[in-house]
Amino acid sequence: MIELLGKSLEELQSIFKTHNIQKFRAKQLIDYIYHRYVFDFQDMTQFPKELRQWLSDNCIISLPTLITESVSPDGKTRKILVEMIDQSRVEAVLMEQHYGYSVCVSSQVGCAMGCVFCASTQGGLYRDLTAAEIIGQVVIFGALTKEQIHSVVVMGAGEPLQNYDNVLQALQLLHDPVICNISYRKMTISTCGWVPNIYKLADEGLPITLALSLHATNNEVRRSIMPVGARYELTEVLDAVKYYYDTTQRRITFEYILIDSINASMEEAHALGEICKDFPNCHVNLIPVNGNEHIELYKPSITNMNTFKDIVASYGVSVTVRKEMGDAIQAACGQLKAAHGRKKENHE
Ligand code: SF4
Question: How far apart are CA 139 and CA 152, in angstroms?
């Protein structure tokens, strides 16, 4: 069967040409899938009956299947659990922001990186998601809300820069004016510091925002909560991020999870401010850690978090404490579950 999801206009035209189908049908098909959210070939009534039958017999649109959906009490955050064709499951989140709808997608089933505060990594890495499976998470939210998706963050389960080609292909499709027409400037890739591919992404010349999961200001603490810190020293990571900034001129976002008694001291706030001096216009996103049944980590008191924030801000840095929009439905950072990450038969 020929997979049609995640194909560019040119690729679809080429498939259709091979099968003697008129070229303009490819554009119509894109319109059905990405703008009208019609996924059943028999409902594509602009197509002649014979074409609908040929598509049904030879092609698939393997949109992930929606398994569960939860909505936060304020209705602004929706988390979905979706299942891929091989029964792998991942979660994705839709957030209603003041500027529009933002979707957070997963890039892998599980994650190999082992960050101690993160629920996604608890079962390890199962597999990379394909470009179609990544874009499918955005399409599902479009279909559910019938709203234009304004921005995409690759910040769910997985280390996106370990699944580089598929993530980039998905973002290129989401950017394509014929498909989803989302500006690269409204896309963010979050990395725990996968150094070689930070350089590679910088050299693509795309104005994608880079978010670095920094989470510590020295190697010792970083290694203790992020195993990737043993592979890449903090200076190597920051050098790569500086190269990204210098090359793209895109504002860097530093994600910093606040964990009481681990990385949230006032000294660390000053150290974070010092690091930020090298990155003009950077933004620091402080994230109170989310404990769950697997993770016994605690957020600092509100007073301590505010003091931490004020110290970082005193270095002239833009800094916010992330609103815990999804906390009520466990859709906040580090809470997208790994429990659903493997094939159903392994876990149920
Ligand atoms: S925080 Fe990101 S990189 Fe770290 S384990 Fe979780 S998903 Fe992987």
Answer: 11
